User: Fold these one by one.
Assistant:
Number 1:
Amino acid sequence: MLAKNTICLWYERDALDAATFYAATFADSSVGRVLRAPGDYPSGTQGDVLTVEFTVLGIPCLGLNGGPAFPQSEAFSFQVATDDQAETDRLWHAIVDNGGQESECGWCKDRWGLSWQITPRVLTEAINDPDRAAAKRAFDAMMTMRKINVAAIERAWRGAGG
């Protein structure tokens, strides 16, 4: 059953592949019901995947195979809080090394163009520090990174250099 509120993600034609990848990569993720076209239609044929219900990190989603009209953009992203460098590395590399692309400050894109923020919890804690000088040091360190380096953020936060 479709949740009351579901994030609908537009894919050109690979919603099932994307959902399967997310389910294999992220905890509390799974692939649910797949709706296939009951007949031919202008951009496809009977049996083509139209939609896929899936969950990513506990968030209900619907993948819609809508064609090339609306590509993904950075205007939407999943922000994933990681507990340590190992989890940060695993998720970052799962996305980037499987046809994805690196970006700045912990952002990357998967092979379908969907943006992900792989954000260690220590980074969020550091840039929210009431000591604004410490927060700025951590923020400035982050601004030099692609994948977040937890140890470098912690050093900057403490004032021990990047």
Number 2:
Amino acid sequence: MSERKPYQSDLTDERWALIEPVLTAWKNRHRSVSGHQGRYSMGEIVNSILYQSRTGCEWALLPNDLPPKSAMYYFAAWRDDGTDQQIHELLRCQVRERGRRLEDPTLVILVIQSVRAATGVPLGATGKDAAKRVRGRKRGLAVDVLGLVIAVTVLAASVHDNAAGITLLDQVAVAAGGSVSKALVDQGFKNQVVTHGAALGIDVGIVQRNPEEQGFVPQAKRWWVEQTFGILILHRRLVRDYEHRPAFSASRVYWAMTYVMARRLTDTNTLTWRDPRVAGA
């Protein structure tokens, strides 16, 4: 897709082919008045976004052979008009179908994660989770049994888990087209979430921890969402919350999962530091 030396975060031709039709259609709807096609291809713009997501660098510190800081315009535009979610949903449905499942799930798992905010993030968009002593934001995910993201919500860390859970349930009801009938949550959620789920036709079950178990013990079915968090954290832009607006943070999750799903659909893996090909690069 590019004549330059590739980065490990780049889309291969096979991965790019999965999302190219969506962005080509977007480009055709947003033609320049002057007819100028732009200096950089849509594929290279996506590579800039993925490079930053994977490495955690600032826009201004992108390598010189990638589209510069102006790539942020596309990141913001695709976030605002829902293109990032459209691409994510397209690949999510394909991964589920490949796993011989219906496009939309019937069961989801909800979890809330408190994430520290980086220096420079506006205080008005953050808060403090007193229980976990974390100042930043709460990142809520709803995932299916394959660990695929169905809904994302990002709120100030001071917001109670119930409010985040209710927001997630509302998003799930829309994103999954009414197919979800069961949601599993941990003990941090209270009856408000259960009641709200019932109003949406979703049976919310609170998974209780066995008091006899000591230390960390994975809970049946709920471990899928923890696995997803483990995958997302490999994208350094998600280790902390660097974004000025919560909507930016949610978009980062969609792009990270788009990268993961494109890799799954093409049966390719990203090289790690353990691979001798990386060591010899």
